[in-house]
Amino acid sequence: MRKIFNFLLASAAALTLLAGCAKEDNRENVLKIYNWADYIDEDVLTEFKDWYKEQTGEDVTIIYQLFDINEIMLAKIERGHEDFDVVCPSDYIIERMLRNDLIIPIDRDFGDTPNYIDGNLSPYIIDCFNKIDGHGKNANDYAVGYMWGTTGIMYNEKFVTPEEASTWDILHNEKFKGKIFIKDAFRDVYGPVLIYLKNRDLAEGKVTLDELMYDSSDESIAMVEEYLKEAKKLIAGWEADFGKEMMTKEKAYVNLTWSGDAVWAIDEANQVGVKLNYVVPKEGSNVWFDGWVIPKYAKNVKAARYFINFMCRPDIAVRNMDATGYVSAIGSPEVLEAKTDPSLDEYVDVSYFFGEGADSVKINGIQYPDASVVARCAMMHDSGDRTEQLLEMWARVKGDNFNIWIVAVIVVAALVLVRIAMVSRKKKHRRHGKR
Predict the structure, then answer these.
(1) Domain around 136
(2) Residue 128's domain is classified under what CATH number?
(3) Cβ atoms within 10 Å, residue 205
(4) Strand partners of residue 290
(5) Residue 7: how many other CB atoms lie within 10 Å
(6) Which member of 48, 187, 292, 343 has the lowest number of beta carbons within 10 Å of its beta carbon?
């Protein structure tokens, strides 16, 4: 993080210098990137500038900013009209941005520079992006996959058996009271719990997984809310990023989390003798994707296109995977070779991702789940006008809905404190004036 912090400072300084010139045409030499935290090999940013110079003969200054919530990123673009050149939203946000005309098509013509996008993207990723509902627009024309993964259960092998971890009902298992953490991401919790609760309907063919990922009806929301409120009695807390550390320190035994976090935690835990594992429960789960897009307010579309192309280069994809623990959308032979590990015991069918000949590969089954696991996973979709109902349910489950009188007391107290501070400040100003 120190490297990226220094990089941000340097970039901010560069932007200040550019702003001082007060010339809009200087903006064409700046590339503004908006990405998740800890989601890239830091050295890749510097190397892109050199590569871009080689390919185009032009210099570029990178302004690299971070976000940790999709909706915050979206609001800055949709309402604030921020001129980010390339951003990395999740699947359902890509869907929403497509519907609201907030992103532009990505031109794949790079002249003499190789096109690393087409031909390197996994056919599985392309197929999933084809399922994004963009109101007639094909997401593959507007977005390029970056990383993907599953939502599942990370567990401590010393305290939890594989059988106990193999079902979402572990969230109701009294044995783990006070040792369960759940990812504070309402979509990543809502989808898997709904799949669990509707498992009989799925088995009887009354509904498909894909259809279920569109279901935000009052009935389904109520079912999930009831289940989570029962589970809450056993849950130690909701976490945005610290769950993996709680697991490595054995302060928690069960964590509903993302596969990338699990990979990081398992590696860290091994170094201190803690044995963690990860599984996608037998009932099924959601699979998620993040992808690069160019917002409609971008000022440097050319550099944004080249950056996305550069990120699809197989060697860059592998480095970003190694740095983050997540899985690249690139399914080229070079990536398969780099990720094959002969020391592993089990073979994994990843032909859905890498194509023919990859049906029995020794590869990390958490990063690259077996085809049988992927078959019981589905992609989330934007809930549109129903998003507010989902958020309200999530707030009720977590207990964020304070009693209105408590809220009123807090507001009044805050106003009193502000008034006291203002009076105190005025007195100080008077004293300064007298002196």
Answers:
(1) 2-147+290-327
(2) 3.40.190.10
(3) 7
(4) 90, 147
(5) 16
(6) 343
